[in-house]
């Protein structure tokens, strides 16, 4: 359709033009039909080549293309302004509680806590406790209380499918256990609270499993807060695998938590759905409950601006971005998380933290281990990010000086 001397005139339909191009007269019509067939044949060959190239590249590009398209238009995408993000975060924290806890954060009931057992270790005592997380729900927890520490910082320790389901496991307080980050912190003066989680029998139909475990964990912190030996101004959380997802939920919903480590789980729903096989893996129902509502990066964004380190082990090929595919168990997972996809996802976590005023608050750590917590890195991250603010130390200085002066006066009076 050109504007001047061309044959097709503005206003002509394509059908009309075709009729003019191929007049129905004798040999001329046959020649023109042959020309048309040649032209169609060239187009068909070109199309065939394009389709073949796409087919060849499909295994490489389909995941990323599909991921990128869905990711950019995901329902939980947060706005790109500070105020917009703050409003989104408040709204989505409520949404998360509503989705997983039967409509929202429940009312607190009396804990009715009872210590049922105390075990003695070299550096701490380990207390077994029963408590009510809901009026009709009883749970158990373990808490280590360090010896010789007046006010111990608190670590909420959360395991996933790799450890005992439905109970807290005292073996995690001994080095060598798959969750010995409990031991690592407990031996260094921390009160390590491990609530029972991972019981896969849902008690309340309107809740989800991850919601029950999240609330049981928050209530376990409520119990820690009743103890004079702990410092509730210094609370961290560490979770492995599904325990990492519980840690993300607790960090989003409980302001007592100041810092966290989430190990072996931050990913995308694209990877979970396309690459990880359920069964044999267990998703605890979350694909159906959350995958269409809350992308992983946005789940992580709910904790901003609290410092959180997201760990992955290079030997954990199922979750570690860019891991060696030869390490995959094809009966469990058919492809590793592409590094580009992880970077795209994690750049959104970083965008959230920047909008929350803490651009360095979220960090990815790749370690040389497997599906486990890097204990030393976790300890450094949480210790550093739960340390008292310098301002707090300065405020305590006059109290310390007054105490010292009192002691000196007392000693002088005695000597005199
Ligand atoms: Zn499960």
The CATH architecture of the largest domain: 3-Layer(aba) Sandwich
**N-to-C SSE series?**
HHHEEEEHEHEHEHHHEHEHH
Question: What would the average pLDDT be, to the nearest integer?
Answer: 87
Structural class by SSE content = alpha/beta
- When the domains are counted, the total is 2
Bound molecules: zinc ion
Number of extended strands = 9
Strand content: 15-25%
- CATH homologous superfamily classification of the largest domain: Alpha/Beta hydrolase fold, catalytic domain
Assign the CATH class of the largest domain. Alpha Beta
Binned, the helix content reads 40-55%
Tell me the radius of gyration. 30 Å
CATH topology of the largest domain: Rossmann fold
Task: Describe the protein's architecture and organization.
With about 425 residues, the chain is α/β, with parallel strands linked by helices. It has two domains: about 60 residues; about 300 residues, Rossmann fold (3-Layer(aba) Sandwich). Helix content is about 45%, strand content about 15%. It contains twelve helices and nine strands. It has a nine-stranded mixed beta sheet, sandwiched between helices. α2 crosses α10 and α5 packs across α6. It is globular. The N and C termini lie far apart (about 115 Å). The relative contact order is 0.10. The N terminus is likely disordered. The site of zinc ion (ZN) has 4 residues, from loops. The site of zinc ion has 4 residues, from loops.
């Amino acid at each position: 359709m050109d504007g001047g001397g061309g044959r097709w005139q503005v206003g002509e339909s394509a059908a009309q033009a075709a009729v003019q191009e191929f007049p129905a007269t004798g040999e001329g019509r046959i020649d023109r039909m042959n020309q048309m067939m040649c032209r169609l044949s060239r187009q068909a060959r070109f199309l065939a080549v394009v389709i073949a190239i796409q087919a060849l590249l499909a295994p490489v590009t389909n995941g990323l293309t599909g991921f990128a398209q869905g990711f950019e238009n995901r329902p939980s995408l947060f706005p790109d302004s500070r105020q917009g993000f703050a409003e989104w975060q408040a709204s989505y924290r409520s949404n998360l509680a509503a989705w997983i806890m039967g409509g929202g954060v429940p009312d607190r009931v009396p804990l009715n806590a009872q210590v049922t057992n105390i075990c003695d270790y070299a550096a701490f005592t380990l207390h077994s406790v029963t408590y009510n997380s809901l009026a009709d729900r009883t749970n158990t927890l373990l808490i280590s209380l360090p010896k010789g520490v007046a006010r111990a910082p608190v670590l909420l320790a959360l395991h996933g499918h790799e450890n005992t389901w439905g109970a807290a496991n005292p073996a995690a307080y001994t080095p060598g256990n798959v969750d010995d980050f409990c031991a690592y912190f407990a031996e260094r003066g921390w009160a390590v609270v491990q609530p029972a989680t991972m019981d896969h029998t849902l008690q309340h139909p309107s809740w989800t499993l991850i919601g029950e475990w999240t609330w049981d964990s928050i209530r376990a912190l409520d119990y820690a807060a009743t103890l004079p030996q702990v410092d509730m101004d210094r609370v961290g959380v560490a979770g492995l695998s599904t325990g990492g997802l519980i840690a993300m939920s607790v960090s989003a919903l409980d302001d007592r938590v100041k810092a966290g480590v989430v190990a072996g789980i931050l990913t995308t729903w694209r990877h979970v759905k396309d690459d990880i096989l359920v069964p044999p893996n267990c998703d605890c129902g979350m694909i159906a409950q959350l995958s269409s509502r809350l992308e992983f990066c946005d789940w992580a964004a709910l904790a901003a601006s609290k410092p959180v380190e997201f760990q992955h082990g290079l030997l954990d090929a199922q979750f570690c971005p860019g891991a060696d595919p030869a390490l995959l168990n094809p009966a469990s997972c058919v492809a590793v998380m592409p590094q580009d996809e992880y970077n795209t996802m994690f750049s959104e976590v970083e965008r959230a933290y920047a909008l929350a005023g803490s651009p360095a608050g979220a960090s990815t750590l790749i370690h040389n281990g497997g599906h486990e917590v890097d204990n030393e890195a976790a300890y450094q991250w949480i210790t550093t990010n739960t340390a008292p603010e310098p301002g707090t130390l300065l405020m305590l200085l006059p109290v310390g000086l007054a105490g010292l002066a009192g002691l000196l006066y007392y000693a002088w009076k005695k000597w005199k």
